[in-house]
Design goal:
It is a single chain. With 458 residues, the protein is of the alpha/beta class. The protein folds into 2 domains: 24-53 and 315-457, Aspartate Aminotransferase, domain 1 (Alpha-Beta Complex), CATH 3.90.1150; 61-312, Type I PLP-dependent aspartate aminotransferase-like (Major domain) (Aspartate Aminotransferase, domain 2, 3-Layer(aba) Sandwich), CATH 3.40.640. It is 40% helix and 12% strand. It has helices at residues 24-33, 61-68, 78-90, 102-113, 127-135, 163-173, 197-210, 221-231, 240-249, 275-288, 299-312, 315-334, 352-355, 365-377, 386-389, 416-431; strands at residues 95-99, 119-122, 139-142, 180-184, 213-217, 253-257, 268-272, 347-351, 382-384, 404-408, 439-443, 454-457. A 5-stranded mixed β-sheet has the order 1-7-6-5-4, with helices on both faces. Strands 8-10-9 form a 3-stranded antiparallel β-sheet. A two-stranded parallel sheet has the order 2-3. α4 (102-113) packs parallel to α5 (127-135), α4 packs across α10 (275-288) and α8 crosses α9. The longest helix is centred in the C-terminal third of the chain and has 20 residues, at 315-334. The relative contact order is 0.17. The model has no long low-confidence stretch (mean pLDDT 96). The chain binds pyridoxal-5'-phosphate. Residues 54, 101-103, 126, 128-129, 184, 188, 217, 219, 257, 259, 268 line the site of pyridoxal-5'-phosphate. Pyridoxal-5'-phosphate (PLP) is lined by residues 54, 101-103, 126, 128-129, 184, 188, 217, 219, 257, 259, 268.
Length: 458
């Protein structure tokens, strides 16, 4: 007999948070009041919250104990030095600039490194990252491999960069116009897809010849390292912590949102190897974030972050983390629900174009599907399609190839039975998909419109 190996969690539950159960009538009213945007729902009205894995994770008892050891001195908190030590030891970067969260680091990095008219290539865009690059005068260029834009491609490293696209940009604009390449581990908008170390090393070789830096968006680097361990030749026996270090070694610095891998509710940082860039960042940080030894975080936040970073690179933790995501994906596939392949690291991405093929992209299929899943069961998901993609500088809509609904799993929060409920609810919506009508946008904010846009049913 071939006995399956479980992904069971390396922890037990010490405290629980009760959730309010809702009726269909209550959900109907809540969704209408929220303008059919799941971001505008009250958390109280949500049963299983898969909006994001950002800041919604369960901290460990060690992290909570760390909260009590917060040193809330204005300057020179001991928690800052602990965090600095952990970042140097785990990632190998020399200098730490703490920020209130990831986008704080993106803002500082973009302001320092990007000049007007510069090209900033990246393996697909991320909403806040690209906006900060654009606000600093840069022009984003997508250099991810084509497979990433195809939800059916089973390429194991869809986060990889197409080196030909990078070379073409260098040829067209000149290396001087490219301050750095922004490499994300894993690629959120492509479905949580990893980049391989082989590809990253090739990119390093190419960019070195041209004096172009590599800046990592290492928000989910531990999950990326897990995929390298599982699927890249030569890494099966290498612990995640070592793979993480090897990734960082190929880069010049990184922005980090502490709210994902590290399981804290708030926090982030910019990490750098170059003293001059660090000096500039340390100057700007006092304008936008806080003093250079707290950068928008309380001492207790920095302590919980330091402990969480260490927990995130544990092999057993990551096996259960990604194992749960894959369990949910397999449940969905049993119901023939179209999901992005291969299953990524932080959630299941349902292909709304395939789920609701009778809707045009202007009728917001992903936004519609997210609303329908909430109406069915109170499960909250998020649109990752045309609404999230926003508009270009000239006002035209971006029309992304991928029109997805993200079912994001917070770390260490929900159980296997919850996964079953999620798959069952999505399957119920799938059964009545032909009857589902699209929506129109009735309010559109200027920046990052997906957060606050409002819709009406057609
Ligand atoms: C969340 C996220 C960010 C931004 O971080 P915040 O802490 O939310 O500001 C940047 N990049 C990626 C890939 C993310 O997922």
């Amino acid at each position: 007999m071939n006995i399956k190996k479980s992904w069971a969690e390396p922890y037990k539950i010490k405290m629980v948070e009760l959730i309010k159960m809702t009726t269909p009538a209550q959900r109907k009213k809540a969704m209408k009041d929220a303008g059919y945007n799941t971001f505008l729902l009250k958390s109280e009205d949500v049963y299983i919250d898969l909006l994001t894995d950002s800041g919604t994770n369960a901290m460990s008892d060690e992290q909570w104990a760390g909260m009590m050891r917060g040193d809330e001195a204005y300057a020179g908190s001991k928690n800052f030095y602990h965090l600095e030590r952990v970042i140097q030891e785990v990632y190998g970067y020399k200098y730490l600039v703490p920020t209130h969260q990831g986008r704080g680091a993106e803002n500082i990095l973009s302001q320092i490194m990007i000049k007007k008219g510069d090209i900033v290539p990246g393996n697909m865009y991320f909403t806040t990252t690209r906006l900060h690059q654009e606000l600093a005068g840069g022009i984003f260029a997508d250099v991810i491999i084509d497979e990433a834009h195809n939800s059916e491609s089973e390429h194991p490293f869809k986060g990889d960069i197409d080196l030909n696209k990078v070379e073409a940009l260098i040829k067209k604009h000149g290396a001087k116009k490219i301050p750095y390449i922004c490499v994300a581990t894993t690629v959120n908008m492509a479905g949580g897809q990893p980049i391989s170390l082989k590809n990253l090393k090739e990119l390093r070789k190419l960019t070195k010849q041209h004096g172009i830096k590599i800046m990592l968006d290492m928000t989910r680097i531990a999950e990326n390292a897990y995929f390298i361990q599982q699927n890249e030749k030569g890494y099966a026996e290498v612990p995640i912590v070592k793979i993480v270090r090897e990734i960082c070694n190929q880069t010049d610095g990184a922005t980090m949102s502490g709210k994902k891998d590290a399981c804290v509710n708030i926090g982030g940082f910019l990490a750098l190897n170059d003293w001059d860039t660090f000096e500039e960042a340390r100057n700007l940080i006092v304008v936008y974030e806080g003093l250079h030894t707290y950068g928008g975080m309380a001492g207790r936040d920095m302590e919980a972050l330091a402990i969480g970073l260490l927990e995130s690179v544990d092999d057993h933790h990551m096996n259960a983390r990604v194992g749960q995501v894959h369990y949910l994906g397999q449940q969905m596939m049993q119901y023939n629900i179209p999901i992005v392949q291969p299953i990524g690291g932080h959630g299941i991405f349902v292909d709304a174009k395939k789920f609701l093929p009778h809707l045009t992209q202007d009728q917001f299929p992903a936004q519609t599907l997210a609303a329908e899943v909430y109406l069915d069961s109170g499960i909250r998901t998020m649109e990752r399609g045309i609404v999230s993609a926003g508009r270009k500088a000239n006002g035209e809509n971006y029309y992304p190839k991928l029109e997805l609904v993200r079912f994001t799993l917070p770390r260490r929060v929900y159980t296997q039975a919850h996964m079953d409920v999620i798959a069952e609810s999505t399957a119920r919506v799938f059964e009545k998909r032909n009857k589902i009508k699209g929506m129109k946008m009735i309010y559109e904010p200027k920046y990052l419109r997906f957060f606050q846009a409002r819709f009406e049913k057609l």
